Amino acid sequence: MSAAIVLLTLAERAAASLEVGIWGTAAWLAVAIVAAIGSMSLLGMALVLIERKVAARFQSRLGPMRVGPHGLFQTVADSIKLLIKEDIIPEQADRILFFLAPTFSLIATLLALVIVPVSPTLHLVDLNIGVVFFAAVSGFGVLGILLGGWSSNNKWSLLGAMRAGAQFISYELSLTLCLIVAVLFAGSLQLSEVVASQADGWWIWRGHVVTIVAFVVFIIASTAELNRPPFDLPEAESELTGGFHTEFSGLRFAFFFLAEFINMFVASALAATLFLGGWMPFQVGGWDTFNSVMAIIPGPIWFAGKVAVIIFISMWVRWTFPRLRVDQLMRLEWKFLLPIGIANVLIAAVIILSGLYFFPVGN
Amino acid sequence: MTAPIRTLDDRIRPSDTPDSPLDTQEYFINMGPQHPATHGVLRLMLKLDGETIREVIPVLGYIHRGIEKMGEAMTYRQFVHLTDRIDYLSALVNNWVVARGVEVATGTETNDRIEYIRTIFAEIERIQSHMLWWGVLGMDLGAFTPFLYGFRDRETLTDIFEETIGCRLTMNYIQPGGVMHDLHPNFVKRTKAALAYSKSKLHEYEELLSGNVILQERTRDVGILSAEDAVALGVTGPPLRASGVAYDLRKVEPYGVYDRVDFRTAVGSVGDCWDRYWVRVEEMRQSIHIVEQLIDNIPEGKTMLMKPAKKIVIPEGVYYNQMETARGILGMVLVSDGTSDKPYRIHLRSPNFNNLWALDAMSRGGRLGDLVANVSSLDLVVPDIDR
Amino acid sequence: MTDADVPSPDEPAEPTPRNPLIEALIASSYGVTDDPLSGSNPGVRVPVENLYDLLAHLRSEPSLAFNCLLSHTAVDRPADGTIELLYVLQSLSTGQRLLVTCPVNRDNASAPTVCGLWPIAEWQEREVFDLFGVTYEKHPDLRRVFLDDDWRGYPLRKDYQDDFMLTPDEPKQ
Fold it and tell me: Cβ of A193 under 8 Å from any chain B Cβ?
């Protein structure tokens, strides 16, 4: 629903600026929807391909090589396969929820994607409460997984969904605490302002150790939120045969799959924006020549580079570590990450109130 | 009928409704026969309370082929071929059990060359079996990369089999009275190279998985099996040694040339998944050590002492002999009526069938994730359970 | 088919110095006789009435300590009208092995369970029940282990027949 509102706002804005009538608005709306779906699928397919290639390298093999040069079109072929597959709905399933669950997942992802600031111009919606918005919609995503597990009417799916519920709600706390640290330093909830506040230096350098801790906790918690190994308990293919998406096939499975990969991008983008300066180049105070050379590289490339590094780390972890057990997962959150997160926020507040920055901060 | 004969349905009837609405209700969930963690067609009925395991009921028979019945219609040489198909990762030891049973029963003496070849191959097969287990354990615990590493390194060893034996999995190489073919001229060179490679890879295994904090968390103090329970439950092989019982047939009843080599028996102390993991990794090292001692000293001699066309008739009696496969003690009860060249009855005491039942004792009270670790640490091969 | 109870006179490997374990068991009150057909392993035969007492003695006697039931199986001997139950006992502490054979009536095959002595017997007995139709008294969970619950007959009996069976060709002379 809110996705439609966002799209409508976009279309309205476009219509107003181009001075077209209602039909023009409708046309722009259609263009916006097609563009959103297209970019999402492209992004998802690219990420899946990268994941497979990276995994293959870690496992001393080549990965997809047959479809296109170096398997470039493998994920396109896979997507087409998923689209034309038979859509199986279990007889005992709750059909309405079974239909809604993957859609919820995808909508939550789409909503989170629109607030990502790629560059000063390429920033779809610059909400003044961008950080809060991200926290809100990422909580919405778990609804899709819970409903998916519930509606399948399968005990394994249900177990996966229950694990997902417990896991996502727990890790959301840590995630939000890390967001608060970043917001405290930046002094704004608006993502463009958060980026702008890092023009003199990224928060990960300037926030003493606090932001480094927050960054690490953010990466851990977001990996858990993203349902990626070593926190892939809701899926846990060797335990739960696929968990919440056991019964999903074809397009519905593709929705979950796409949502998962784009979520990974969004989380990495958020980490890059909040702690690594978003599209801001790497600047060192006093080194004017160095700074000007760095500034030549355009913002989107800086942004993409930072996101790529974080995604690579996430994949590295995924293909190296075994999976945690469900009680160990909870212990990690409630006994370690949450106390660290709370202490971190308090320390951050003290630092900001006393103004102990390494670098002078504008504003 | 003195005891009531029940069916599976009686066994998995859910318990009555709880007394108070706050009580949780136990439920049954079916794991397998198609499940990623059961490696084949093992079916487990789990009685769960939330995610806590209350009972594990294995349901067997999905790959029961009646090998014992088939054996009654076959000569001993023909039966060797069937034994490849029980525990396919210990095919050579399975062959060897039959061969040795027949040799002991007929009073045939083998020469040193045959025994050296048999021992070397059995140990190489133990290494490759444990390598595969190592990879599969990684995959079961959620780390996919070890799986591919294990298979990659196992290739070098199966290549050795392929060169001399001609087969990679179901070898049927060890026959009553000797071995099928003589060694390939490349065998010694190739084996040495493969052993050096395996040694370096064992180090990699340690770094990738053994020292990993998550693996340690997942395996330590999980699925503890005490020494008394292990013995009473008929557990043999690495799981028994992990529980602290240093019982290895290669040591206590040496066959082949195990009495001429120096090796240590890996023994655990707690009997948890980690000990079972560690015992197997250590066994890989010891097996490499055994082969290293033997590979340069293979004596000359004939490799087949019984004429292949000769009819083997075993004197009447019940013969039992046993060997240590990668998974435990494989025993063979051979009953002959003294007139036919076919066994009157042949029974295989399979290590997996007996190890499987310890799963319930190990897993009760643990989580679903622990059950997967336990299944993996027992290293079950389902065709050997069902036979 | 030879008679299993009567050892053939030209048995070559009759061990003249008997195993002291077997001597002691024969001297005991369990009606134990030596099993001359047990190959290289010491073996005894025992009537079914004394089976449980003998096995309990073997399990609990500290000097014997047969703490591991390696295998339990059966041999169908329709010529004698018996099914021989075979217990392969192993002591992991002394390293001794003993085969205990116990013939039971083929038509109404029944024996006491030894689950209480060795827990693994529960499943080994289920296997024998499944394939030979030997029922075990007081067995806690007597079900078929490999075959379906509604399977008819006991496949490892020599006279087992079903519609899917292939009969082996007669050997060409």
Answer: no
